[in-house]
């Protein structure tokens, strides 16, 4: 490893990057980067710069409106509001409590942002999660020990736990606990299904989202219809999914969700869908996970650069 010089003042990026700026040593400036008591206060920095500037003539400069204390307080409140994770959760709850027909695109985006973190939704594509968010219904069971599903009861929904813990007691005496992000209930089928075991809440204030069997089957069953598989010599080399990013249908198209490394590289110079404008940036951020060396991309780009029709894209 390279050793840093003991005297860091010897390190210059350029001889005179800003010749009009004079360097003031930290001992004279009155504000240090770090000290025993922590960083300097704003008043220290202000006094230091004021003493360096001396009496500055400010006549002739245009006057600008100064924020009042009330406005500053409002800004502080806004910052606190956006940085508070509990308030973010309140926003999600407001979206959940709306009827499916009343959910806006913004509501669905809020729900998507929250749901994609949960294990129950982990292996689903974005379009499937989006559709599930648009039809989910919110339910709360306030008491611990409440029975949600009886053994042998006909199932009509798929449940995902958002808060709390439930216990499933099976007829053979075994039991298991499910917590936030876990799911139970029906599988994606229209066949009649029955509960095996008793599901009851273990704590107060258990919260769930429920998706009706008909909706759950329809959304998961239509995944195949929305995907387009590209085959070469009998092998699938790329899978694209059709997505609609808004309900108006104006932003829709195919997006690559799976491909061989070779096809992912090839896709760099293909026309990208309006729903996937950041493919190149995404590829460059993640290529290390599926390529052993960046030279595989570099050599291909050099090869394409010699082709007139591809040079601009390269």
Please give the share of residues in helix: 25-40%
Strand order of the largest sheet: 1-8-3-6
CATH-defined architecture of the domain at 85-219: Sandwich
| CATH fold title of the domain at 85-219 | Jelly Rolls
Arithmetic mean of pLDDT: 77
Biggest sheet record: 4 strands, antiparallel
Regarding quaternary structure, how should these chains be classified?
Answer: single chain
* Element order: H for helix, E for strand: HHHHHHEEEEEEEEHHEEEHHHH
Output the structural class: alpha+beta
Instruction: Tell me the number of helical segments per DSSP (H or I, 4 or more residues long).
Output: 12
Count the E strands.
11
Q: Tell me the fraction of residues in β-strands, as a range.
A: 15-25%
Global shape? elongated
CATH class of the domain at 85-219: Mainly Beta
InterPro entries: cNMP-bd_dom, cNMP-bd_dom_sf, Ras-like_Gua-exchang_fac_N, Ras_GEF_dom_sf, RmlC-like_jellyroll
Domain N-terminal Ras-GEF: 252-314
Region (Disordered): 12-86
Pfam families: cNMP_binding, RasGEF_N
Walkthrough of the structure:
This protein is α+β, with helices and mostly antiparallel strands and 314 residues long. Among the domains are: 85-219, Jelly Rolls (Sandwich), CATH 2.60.120; 233-313, no CATH class. Helices cover 34% and strands 19% of the residues.
